[in-house]
Give the backbone structure.
Amino acid sequence: MTIGFILNGEDVTIRTEANIRLLDILRDTFKLFGAKCGCLTGVCGACSVIFNGNVVPSCLIPAFRIRGCEIITIEGFSQNDEYQDILMGFSQAGVENCGYCDAGKILAVEALLEKIPRPSKADINAAFSGIRCRCTDPTRLVEGVLLTADIRQRRLYGRSA
Ligand code: FES
Ligand code: FES
């Protein structure tokens, strides 16, 4: 089947089978390797993308569902100021960064801060419930998100409250 969709802001068209995973399309057809092959069952978050505005595991999305949809991968998101906020917050908190879970971890922060610009620790823990990171101390991760929220508020409004 032929499917058109928007990938990182560009109109694209592919020929594929209806049940091929979006994750495989991103990696095999578009050579976008930021979404990683982890559990392939929707549990670890390593394959996360933004799909019509929501962070979802691309391993659970079959090709037939992406027609006409807007998909942003970690590669596309990394072009934005929002990505830089997160990198800075993570760096200041000493969050580990081995590359395996970046798509899940970073896009989960963005989804959270879009909904709750000043999240509580409980909000942050809930937002990361679908992300399996083998490296980062959870306390640092919470600190990294709180710092990111501060950095973003200062960038947008010139203050942190
Ligand atoms: S590889 Fe998709 S959620 Fe784990
Ligand atoms: S930083 Fe290594 S798995 Fe998350």
